[in-house]
Amino acid sequence: MNQEEIKQILPHRDNMLLVERAELTGENEAKGYYTIKGDEFFLKGHFPGNPVVPGVILCEMMGQASCVLLADKVKGGTPYFTKLDGVKFKKPVLPGDTLETVATVTRVRAPFYFISTKGYVNGKLHVQAEMSFAVK
């Protein structure tokens, strides 16, 4: 799925659409990808001379990729973050890196969806979190 298809699922636009491509890899699993170019707004002050993707942006990237799993539930609604737990930042994500997010639905209690996410760069785990969303 390309960005135009992702826009049918997510309300994010312009510099806040942080998934370039995504794919469903199973009934309850999806992957999303974003390559850090180096000129993103969130790198301008984080940190001058040593740009590192802020943790909150990594969580947003994983959250947006997770919503691909909710594509058939989102029609006519919007997915909203409701909870973020167990976030672990293991390694920095830098310009030139491609963050590969793997998202797995672990539980559903409509309208809430609970998703386990992991973010990899070159096959190495850099960030992980448990997230929940409400579709309204």
Automatic annotation (TrEMBL):
EC code: 4.2.1.-
The keyword Lyase is assigned to this record: yes
Assigned keywords, A-Z: Lyase
Name of the protein: 3-hydroxyacyl-ACP dehydratase FabZ family protein
A Pfam family that the UniProt record links to this protein: FabA
Lyase listed as a keyword: yes
Phylogenetic lineage: Bacteria, Bacillati, Bacillota, Clostridia, Eubacteriales
GO function term, MF aspect, one: lyase activity
Record PANTHER family: 3-HYDROXYACYL-[ACYL-CARRIER-PROTEIN] DEHYDRATASE
